[in-house]
Specification:
Layout lengths: L5 H27 L3 E5 L9 H6 L4 E3 L4 H13 L3 E7 H4 L4 H10 L4 E6 L17 H6 L5 E3 L4 H13 L4 E4 L22 E4 L4 E5 L3 H13 L5 E5 L2 E3 L3 H10 L2 E9 L4 H9 L7 E7 L9 H7 L4 H12 L1
Parallel strand pairs: 1-2, 1-3, 3-4, 4-6, 5-6, 8-9, 8-11, 11-12
Antiparallel strand pairs: 5-10, 7-9
Helix pairs in contact: 1-7, 3-5, 8-12
Length: 323
Amino acid sequence: MKAITSSSIRTWARLGQRGTFFAIALPELGGEHENLRLLTADVAQLSSMLRFQSAYPEKFLNVGIAEQNMIGIASGLAMEGRCVFASTYASFIAVRSLEHVRQHLAHMQCNVKVVGFSAGVMSARSGIAHWATEDIAFMRALPNLTVFSPADCLDAYKIARYAAETKAPMYIRLSGGPNCPIVHNDDYNFQAGKFDKLRDGEDVCIFATGLMVKEALDAAESLQERNISSTVYNVHTIKPLDLDTLEQAQKSHQLLVSLEEHSIIGGLGSAIAEYLSGTEGGPRLIRMGIPDAYSAAGSQRWIWEQNGIDCASVTKRIVEELL
């Protein structure tokens, strides 16, 4: 593993989460782990997998446009002792292949890392067929499956390394495209299952995941101009939740906010609400995400604005809640 520098972080941001995961992290891991295998459903070039394929042709398999078969093949390889990464669009792997993920990975606990890229509304103009705004809900409901959603490319890199070194099934949700926003300017101590505190405040605590982490940080800056102090957590691990941090935040803030590029039903906000339902007292939780409706296609930021999850909308909503 090479040293992580601010320069490498900036380079990875230009590649995006998908490029960092498949063109940087996995080629490194392929040389370190003899049992590692990478499968794709005919998106090798689109997913920046050609570098891995060229370096380790014997460890790479393109199954064609057959997402369900890919999960079956990945499970078989895992049963033979391989650590398998299987990837395609999040919208396909979390919906079309859901039964296979449930039966082969969650139930049988095969060592397969399901990597869904273009999560959220990253494939903005392609419309809902290519969006993944329900995937966290589907995957979070499956026992034995850890669910990750990196905030930036450094997170994506660290999650890839953690996944290769951990024998367990996982769902990894990649959402940041080329020129991905940078949340971490320097290396940090990634801990699976522990929220990553990026900003400390007293009034409101924002739990954000994926690309919404940067929106949350920008909103916190805007709120500070209004004398509202905000804590911001990067929730890179959605399952299991960091219950200790949730308990502390509940005791020390006036308002809790969840922010995600996902349906408000079944995602991060729902997970936090489930925890809070078993506690007494505490502040309100405002769940911010995609409403229970399908949105029109457009640019990614336009869709965020229409659904109230961009920085300006988040700031406005929190100010209104605290008045």
